[in-house]
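User: Second chain of the day. Same drill as before.
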Amino acid sequence: MRKNLLKTRCWVIKIGSSLITNNGTGLDKIAIANWVRQLVNLQQQGIQVVLVSSGAVAEGVKRLGLKKRPTEIHLQQAAAAVGQMGLIQTYETCFQEYGVHTAQILLTHDDLSNRTRYLNARSTLATLVKMNVVPVINENDTVATAELCFGDNDTLGALVANLLGADALIILTDQQGLHKSDPRVDPQAPIVNQAMATDPDLLRMAGGSNSVGRGGMITKVTAARLAARSGACTVIANGREEDVLIRLAAGAETGTLLLPEKQPVAARKQWLAGQLKARGQLVIDDGAVRVLENSGRSLLPVGVTAVTGIFDRGDVVTIVDAQGREVARGLVNYDSKEASQLQGCSSDRIAELLGYAGEQEMIHRDNMVMVD
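Assistant: Same format as last time:
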């Protein structure tokens, strides 16, 4: 099954605080430079790379001269604001050595649970990746107090994998992978080489977290389950292992591979089916029906003949033919008023009709599933 990783073309790579920092004393710039070299290598192999990186608070703690990570929320937020500057500067400097551009993206879990912001974030990230820019993502700890109290970047990495429909979530940690029992108690505990992400025994095997990072092995297993919902596999591996990312891309048997139960298309269909009740309906002409059913392309405004219901950008709508048969459903790029203005029109008239240049598609194919 490791050979399946060779076929993947979009990776979300999460690097934790325990790796990014020198045991909490600031950024390990040598280690970061080494991961950047590997990420550039992956990109050169044709793998789309998205980076989720911890370390802002830990770097801020050092810059502010604090003896340890503070427990007060306002001090944690201050440390995050100061440390994020150093974190992104370091990545920018390292990637620029290879002529690769980076983009700073700060997200909260709310950004990815709100469907309008979900679409906005997805559109931005997809555009950056297509332009071979490496997004460097972190939680927006400066404003998201809930994340500072309970959050972790393992979960954020999984949500980003869901967002992009990534093939793989790679979680780099200071452990060799998931052990069958806590290696701090049993140093001889064997590594789980491969399992299904939904295996209930995995949570029992997982341990706690250290004092630097917030996410222990439990959060990594939980993140793997979340990533599996959109069909992504997860690898938990030792980030300090030499050329670990390059070796994974070559099919090396390293770390723990956690597999989804469903293939990506089926998993995404299940995810969309689990969204809230459809808020509206788009009626499409016969030509659009043929395009969707036979070509797997996006739904353009020109193929829409009628819009019913009141909905917002990002809501789930059903797509039906002239006889009322449901053909597909998906997350719509325009609210009901805008959709009505655009129905039957060519995409090159969107700016003229709405006063701004929006998405060319009424519903992008990646956010749409066909109904059997």
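The longest strand covers residues 10-15.

User: Great, on to the next one.
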